[in-house]
Specification:
The protein is globular. It is α/β, with parallel strands linked by helices. A hairpin with a 5-residue loop joins strand 8 and strand 9. The relative contact order is 0.17. The protein starts with a helix and ends with a helix. It has a nine-stranded mixed β-sheet, sandwiched between helices. Helix 4 runs parallel beside helix 5 and helix 6 packs across helix 7. The longest helix is centred in the middle third of the chain and has 24 residues. The protein is built from seven helices and nine strands; from the N terminus they run αβαβαβαβαβαββββα.
Length: 271
């Protein structure tokens, strides 16, 4: 959800952050986070907290890993945060891709219960659900399509009940270099499948030898005229995350979009 990420980056920015979002919140902006799994998870948590506490949105957080306490990065970034502050965040622990698909499909039933309908659906570590994936990417496409269609369906319901103001968006993290998994054998193909349903890609590239990352927000449609953004992210000594806007990073954003385009072209050549 690109507008939520923009809010997260501004809230935890050092100095004067950028005042613009990637896209207006009314524009479809389901988001795929790519890069280090721990960093992606930290950003997902910050997004969930920001959506739940700052905006009062209901968040559904799918993950394979149960949490006994708040992550260090979250506690350090939001001092004084208590578990009861996350009452609008519901964690759902699912082990298999099939269970994830069933749970997402069942969200249509919440349409009759406006109070239970989420406005942000998060899937943490999609690659963890693909350990037994063979060469056929159709299970990934099925889940991605379910997430997209469910968010669109809930958005329509919420807009009808909130004078056109309700939105439901999706954020998915995916580590495309997962050792010992079929994912690492065909990352471009899987990313191409996910890009069909997730319109924004947020990529984390580590700065060698430092607890720093370059963050690129790019539209997955190369022909789009919408401008991306580049940020610099720092993992502080106490574990908190800090974001710094990069001014004049247009070339890097264009390079990132070219990279996405090349991934799609390679996938087309393989078919």
């Amino acid at each position: 959800m690109a507008d939520i990420l923009g809010l997260v980056f501004r809230r935890f920015a050092s100095g004067t952050g950028r005042t613009d979002f990637l896209f207006p919140s009314s524009v479809e902006g389901n988001t795929l986070l790519c890069g280090d799994a721990k960093i992606s998870r930290s950003v997902l948590f910050l997004s969930a907290v920001t959506a739940a506490t700052d905006l009062g949105l209901k968040v559904l957080f799918f993950t394979q890993t149960s949490f006994q306490s708040l992550p260090v990065s979250l506690r350090a970034s939001v001092p004084g945060l208590k578990l009861e502050s996350l009452k609008n965040v519901k964690f759902v622990y699912v082990k298999t891709l099939g269970e994830l698909a069933e749970d997402v499909a069942s969200l249509h039933e919440l349409a009759s219960e406006a109070a239970s309908s989420p406005s942000l659906i998060i899937v943490d570590g999609l690659e963890q659900y693909l350990q037994e994936l063979q060469d056929d990417p159709s299970p990934v496409a099925h889940v991605a399509a379910l997430l997209h269609d469910t968010a669109a369906f809930l958005t329509q319901i919420q807009q009808n009940r909130a004078d056109g103001q309700g939105l439901c968006r999706v954020m998915v993290s995916f580590q495309n270099e997962c050792e010992g998994s079929r994912v690492s054998e065909a990352p471009d193909l899987l990313l191409s499948v996910l890009d069909r349903y997730l319109q924004v890609r947020c990529t984390f590239e580590a700065v060698a030898g430092q607890n720093e990352w370059q963050v690129y927000l790019s539209d997955t449609c190369p022909s789009s005229t919408r401008q991306g953004q580049q940020w610099h992210m720092v993992l502080q000594a106490e574990g908190g995350l800090e974001f710094r806007p990069v001014i004049g990073g247009e070339k890097q954003i264009l390079d990132q979009r070219d990279k996405i385009k090349q991934e799609k072209e390679r996938c087309e050549d393989r078919k």
